[in-house]
Design goal:
Strands 1-2 form a two-stranded antiparallel ribbon. It has one domain. With 121 residues, it is mostly helical.
């Protein structure tokens, strides 16, 4: 049991998927900016390439990469991150929704991310 604990405590925040922020990174997908590839788990990578990200996944990627990047821009997603041309069904549960101003207003870092995403999109 201690070995599992030590393994999990050695995982850095940057080792997690940029989209879901839950699973570990399995894929590095090139983006418009070669210095800033998408770092994703297998499931989010498949959804990104099929224009089928969940709202929170789109939001998290848009905060890091900008909603104007090719795989995230408004030909495929509306201003709130809802997929407009998904190639597979997008199942969104309550936990998959993007944050609102009310959700982030008491957390400075989340509020900054939210404001940047709102200004850019």
């Amino acid at each position: 049991m201690t070995s599992l604990l030590s393994i999990s405590t050695n995982v850095k925040i940057s080792d997690f998927c940029e989209a879901c922020k839950i699973n570990e990174i399995n894929v590095v997908e090139p983006s418009d900016n070669p210095d800033q590839p998408y770092k994703l788990c297998n499931q989010c990578h498949k959804r990104l390439l099929k224009y089928s990200l969940r709202l929170v996944e789109w939001y998290n990627l848009a905060v890091i990469h900008s909603p104007n990047k090719f795989l995230l821009h408004d030909d495929f997603y509306d201003d709130d991150g809802e997929a407009c041309q998904p190639e597979v069904d997008v199942i969104v549960t309550k936990k998959d929704k993007a944050p609102t101003l009310k959700n982030v207003r008491n957390d400075l870092e989340s509020l900054l991310d939210f404001s940047i995403n709102e200004v850019v999109s």
